[in-house]
């Protein structure tokens, strides 16, 4: 954060505050542009040759491409690129809210156990899928992952509701849940055959290529339904950064706020990970990058965290195709590879400032 | 005209009772009540009851109205409360904290009015220079002043302060109470402040209530409350009380007993 310049003396607080505000609006605009640029790069990358101009032409007028190109663009590239944006945005939004209400920079939807539960659900599905017949094969895995993830969300909600809702309790139960789910998943590994174990590991890494249009719409709809509720809470979330005692002195029901936020984040995370696997990290690093760029005013931070999440996952998706030509690296491996340098760079840049 | 009545208030945490049948002197426009008492005597608990943060048995009336019957917005327009804990040392800017607080309370101010108001409160409290510095870069005293600014943002007719001067230096300890006396009492408001400092209480308070183990030991004017006997009983110190040059009580604490 920049201190006020010497020239600021005599300038009214409103002007100086407005200057900060406009700077943040510009950063949000730049993030949006970067995300769109990343989307374009992501769309033109891939084993089949389909350049940027073909992509644009094919989006505006599908008939301009031949059948093979059309299928590649509309059935592979677009859904993959858009699921990256929507999952990234969902995890970024979930992460920033959880961090704020638990006042814990290490908190993320993943430390609440939601994604570990999804992994457990997916593992159960993979091990049991030969014996489940009432659901189509492709639906079993996301369905069970979703059910388990939502179940863990309900469990944490119950802890908040009936356990008094203290921050530490929530974090502790979340971590306990992570360990429990991991232990049960390990137990499944123990009984599963090698083929199933490989599938489980592959799912756990996280992968965008399984997604089709239906998944894109579900995750996008979930994000768009929840975003307005988050935006309605931006003032309260901002003042909560001034401490719980202050919020309580204003008559704000902090434990009810916590319940709502955990409900929202669990839903976002459950829907995001059930289709693409446990792409961790975005929910942690997206919000942190947004905080470093935009500060703590949640008017800017909430949309900023969603944008950062979308941008990082989109970049990771691009790199997963572009890094080694002809090979698609699972995107879950690359989120950390992309996110960590960005985060470190920002941290060091901030450290150097006076 | 503002009036505050507190009669027979009891409150606790779970099974543990922290306040027993507390009755305060009736407060009228322009008066300042100091709440004294050793650690854990229930000062903060009583402040939280007055601030409507905590449910209590008994009667707490603001202008002859039961405190809980006053609608939320109206309450927050009239009552400012400063908790004992200063704002957390996060990366939030003091101006953002003030701004979001005013907006969360739905105070009826335009952006320009709110900015002017924040600037005014900050300049009274010597916070202009740090208005846009992250809270974690502020000293404890400055953060406590930000906490006071938050309570002052709505020109309250009842201002509740829980140990407002605990982290402040000699200048601000008095300056804060002078400011509160001018801006709140001077405009007909009422101030209730839990205090640690007996000399400050003697100098600025119209009434003092002495709490011990959740009970009022004695309440009345500073002369009635601040006696060697009371201080020996409540604080377990030997003290000497005298009048200083400007006719204020001065308390010399001699030794613990
Ligand atoms: N949140 C709480 N939960 C349980 N007991 C509390 C809580 N806050 C205060 N108490 C108890 O209530 C009593 C009064 O505390 P408090 O009002 O904070 O005293 P003071 O502000 O005078 O130091 C103490 O015995 C304290 O232990
Ligand atoms: Mg206290």
**Computed CA radius of gyration of chain B, to the nearest angstrom:** 18 Å
Q: List low-pLDDT spans of chain A.
A: 1-7
Gyration radius of chain A, rounded: 21 Å
- H/I helix tally of chain A: 14
Let me know the average pLDDT of chain B: 92
Write out the distinct hetero groups bound to the structure: adenosine-5'-diphosphate, magnesium ion
Roughly what fraction of the amino acids of chain B lie in strands? 25-35%
Helix content of chain B: 25-40%
First-residue to last-residue Cα separation of chain B: 44 Å
Major sheet of chain B: 6 strands, mixed
Give the helix tally of chain B. Answer: 9
List its salient traits.
heterodimer; A: mainly alpha; disordered N terminus; B: 257 residues; alpha/beta; 6-stranded mixed sheet; 9 helices; binds adenosine-5'-diphosphate; binds magnesium ion
Outline the structure in words:
The longest helix of chain A has 36 residues, at 67-102. Chain A starts with 12 loop residues before the first helix and ends with a helix. With 354 residues, chain A is mostly helical. Chain A has helices at residues 13-44, 52-60, 67-102, 114-128, 137-162, 167-191, 194-205, 213-232, 234-240, 244-249, 254-276, 282-294, 298-322, 331-352. Chain A has 14 helices and no strands. Helices cover 77% and strands 0% of the residues of chain A. Chain B has 257 residues and is an alpha/beta fold. In chain B, 33% of the residues lie in helices and 29% in strands. Chain B is globular and about 55 Å long. The termini of chain B are far apart.
């Amino acid at each position: 954060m920049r201190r006020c310049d010497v020239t600021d003396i005599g300038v009214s607080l409103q002007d100086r505050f407005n200057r900060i505000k406009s700077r943040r609006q510009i950063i949000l605009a730049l993030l949006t542009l970067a995300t769109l640029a990343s989307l374009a790069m992501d769309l033109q990358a891939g084993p089949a040759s389909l350049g940027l101009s073909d992509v644009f032409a094919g989006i505006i007028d599908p008939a301009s491409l031949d059948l093979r190109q059309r299928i590649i663009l509309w059935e592979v590239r677009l859904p993959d690129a858009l699921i990256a944006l929507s999952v990234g945005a969902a995890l970024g939004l979930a992460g920033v809210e959880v961090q704020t209400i638990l006042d814990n920079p290490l908190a993320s939807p993943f430390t609440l156990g939601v994604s570990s539960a999804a992994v457990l659900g997916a593992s159960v599905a993979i091990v049991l899928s030969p014996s489940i017949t009432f659901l189509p094969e492709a639906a079993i895995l996301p369905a069970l992952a979703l059910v388990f993830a939502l179940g863990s969300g309900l469990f944490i909600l119950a802890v908040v509701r009936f356990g008094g809702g203290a921050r530490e309790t929530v974090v502790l139960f979340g971590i306990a849940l992570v360990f429990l789910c991991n232990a049960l998943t390990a137990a499944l590994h123990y009984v599963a055959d090698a083929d199933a174990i490989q599938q489980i590991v592959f799912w756990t890494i996280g992968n965008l290529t399984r997604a089709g249009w239906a998944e894109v719409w579900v995750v996008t709809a979930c994000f768009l339904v929840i975003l307005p509720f988050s935006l309605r809470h931006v003032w309260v979330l901002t003042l909560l950064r001034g401490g719980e005692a202050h919020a309580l002195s204003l008559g704000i029901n902090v434990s009810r706020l916590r319940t709502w936020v955990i409900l929202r984040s669990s839903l976002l995370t459950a829907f995001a990970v059930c289709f693409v696997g446990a792409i961790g990290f975005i929910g942690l690093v997206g919000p942190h990058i947004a905080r470093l760029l935009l500060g703590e005013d949640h008017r800017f931070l909430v949309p900023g965290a969603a944008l950062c999440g979308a941008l990082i996952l989109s970049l990771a998706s691009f790199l997963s195709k572009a890094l080694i030509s002809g090979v698609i690296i699972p995107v879950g491996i690359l989120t950390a590879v992309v996110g960590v340098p960005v985060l470190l760079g920002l941290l060091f840049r901030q450290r150097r400032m006076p | 005209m503002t009036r505050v009545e507190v009669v027979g208030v009891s409150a606790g945490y779970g099974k543990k009772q922290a306040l027993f049948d507390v009755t305060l002197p009736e407060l009228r426009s322009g008066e300042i009540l100091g709440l004294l008492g050793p650690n854990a005597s229930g000062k903060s608990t009583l402040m939280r009851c007055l601030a409507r943060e905590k449910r209590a048995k008994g009667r707490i009336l603001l202008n002859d109205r039961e405190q809980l019957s006053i609608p939320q917005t109206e309450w927050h327009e009239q009552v400012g409360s400063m908790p004992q804990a200063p704002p957390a040392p996060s990366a939030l800017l003091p101006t953002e904290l003030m701004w979001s607080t005013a907006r969360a309370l739905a105070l009826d101010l335009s952006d320009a009015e709110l900015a002017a108001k924040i600037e005014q409160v900050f300049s009274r409290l010597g916070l202009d220079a740090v208005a846009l510095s992250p809270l974690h870069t502020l000293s404890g005293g400055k953060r406590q002043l930000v906490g006071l600014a938050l309570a002052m943002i709505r020109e309250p007719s009842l201002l509740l302060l829980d140990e407002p001067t605990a982290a402040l230096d000699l200048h601000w300890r008095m300056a804060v109470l002078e400011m509160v006396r001018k801006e709140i009492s001077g405009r007909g408001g009422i101030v209730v402040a839990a205090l640690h400092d007996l000399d400050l209480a003697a100098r600025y308070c119209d009434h003092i209530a002495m709490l011990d183990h959740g009970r009022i030991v004695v309440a009345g004017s500073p002369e009635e409350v601040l006696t060697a006997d009371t201080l020996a009983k409540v604080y377990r110190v030997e003290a000497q009380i005298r009048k200083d040059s400007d006719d204020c009580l001065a308390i010399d604490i001699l030794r613990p007993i």
